[in-house]
Amino acid sequence: MVVLSKPAFDHFKNCTTFFPGIPLVDLSRPDSKTQLVKACEEFGFFKVVNHGVPIPLIKELESEAVRFFSLPHSDKAKAGPPDPFGYGDKRIGPNGDVGWVEYLLLTTNTHSGYQKFASIFGEAAENFRRVVNEYVLAVRRMACEILEMLADGLKIQPRNAFSKLLMDEKSDSVFRLNHYPPRPQAQLQDQSNGRNLIGFGEHTDPQIISVLRSNNTSGLQISLKDGSWIPVPPDQTSFFINVGDSLQVMTNGRFKSVRHRVVANSSKSRLSMIYFGGPPLSEKIAPLAALMEGEEDSLYKEFTWFEYKNNAYKTRLADNRLGLFEKIAAS
Ligand SMILES: C=C1C[C@]23C[C@@]1(O)CC[C@H]2[C@@]12CC[C@H](O)[C@@](C)(C(=O)O1)[C@H]2[C@@H]3C(=O)O
Ligand SMILES: O=C(O)CCC(=O)C(=O)O
Ligand SMILES: [Fe+2]
Asked: Which PROSITE patterns match (predicted)?
């Protein structure tokens, strides 16, 4: 007889639909575009292998991040508070969200995110900046390939309809390093309340696409349509891809932006690095005409990425940010 641990039992008890597992897409396979479309429609989330991002580059960035987060708190705090860029500790965003996490948030299209960093960390910042830049270029290339395969899979012309927004020199993309310290010993011992320590509260990402890589510590979970939470087994040599709110709108709801969160229940620290590929601020976010069938209406009112982002920063993490822009209000 198979005996499930309590968390595993609770997980299956709460699931009302059969979940076949996190979709895995091998980007080198000829049929990957079909699998990508299916994963974006069903979950808005999938894992990719054969991604072409060099493992030594990933490891180099990880070492830099570990070095930064190992500094005394008073040193790291000099690169904060986040405005929204810079070093942050526990507070996420401007509206009262907190998590068991410290982070560094950087913009990828100007050097402004590094300015306070550089003035504090001197030469060490230079190497850090070089590695972040190389890494961001590599993951952006992969994100663009995925977006082009998705355009092919959806039979959209031109195939760079999505990816050109990330390649635009004014693309408003963001890069984030999250460090979740090990759960405090006292809470590890107190298993009786069974409560999760929230590392990063549930939310959807506002941008087009997010590319996440973590070390081998678990914690990330995605929400299925029935509201159940599925743990994502970590894999440090693969990437996890999220559909963001903007891609949901551009596909008129065909692709779903996935709700996700991080629980920090581990005795090991979790380190994640996420590239959020966004459009230029002036870009109009609307369903692509090539995708609209027959008399199909847009599910969303028109807005620019500037308007969406501006509103996002007035919301709490768990809020449904797309609700305000839906033509028929969400129930
Ligand atoms: C609570 C917040 C943090 C966030 C801005 C917001 O007001 C709502 C969206 C949040 C989010 C989630 C995905 C990314 O981590 C992020 C950088 C983003 O673009 O939107 C964060 C924002 C943040 O941490 O500044
Ligand atoms: O750190 C993680 O694994 C995910 C964090 C996340 O979802 C985010 O920063 O938007
Ligand atoms: Fe996220």
From this structure: FE2OG_OXY
Report the interhelical angle of 32-42 vs 112-153 (nearest 10°): 110
pLDDT digits (tens, 9 = 90+) for 82-129: 999 999 999 999 999 999 999 999 988 765 556 666 666 777 788 898
* Residue from 178, 276, 309 whose mutation best tests the ligand 1 pocket (most atoms within 8 A of CB): 276
| Domains along the chain with CATH numbers | 6-325 (2.60.120.330)
Instruction: Considering the candidates 129, 259, 270, 321, report the single residue annotated as catalytic.
Output: 270
> What residues in the chain have per-residue pLDDT under 70?
1-17, 110-120, 185-194, 329-331
CB 182 within 8 A of CB 267: yes
Please give the angle made by the CA atoms of 251, 245 and 65, to the nearest 5 degrees.
130
Burial of 192 per CB tally in 10 Å (0-12, 13-18, 19+): exposed
pLDDT in tens, 233-274: 999 999 999 999 999 999 999 999 999 999 997 789 999 999
Closest ligand 1 atom to residue 315 Cα is 7
DSSP code per residue over 223-263: E-TTS-EEE----TTSEEEEE-HHHHHHTTTSS-PPPEEEE
What is the interface pTM, i.e. ipTM, of the complex?
A: 0.99
Please provide the size of the chain in residues: 331
229 phi and psi, to 5 degrees?
-100, 130
pLDDT reported for residue 5: 46
Mutate which of 92, 200, 310 for ligand 1? The one with the most ligand atoms within 8 Å of its CB, which is 92
Q: How far is the CA of 116 from the centre of ligand 1 (A)?
A: 20
212 alpha carbon, closest ligand: 2
What tokens does 259 get? 């709700």
User: Which of 150, 139, 144 is CA-nearest to residue 176?
Assistant: 139
Q: How far is the CA of 313 from the centre of ligand 1 (A)?
A: 7
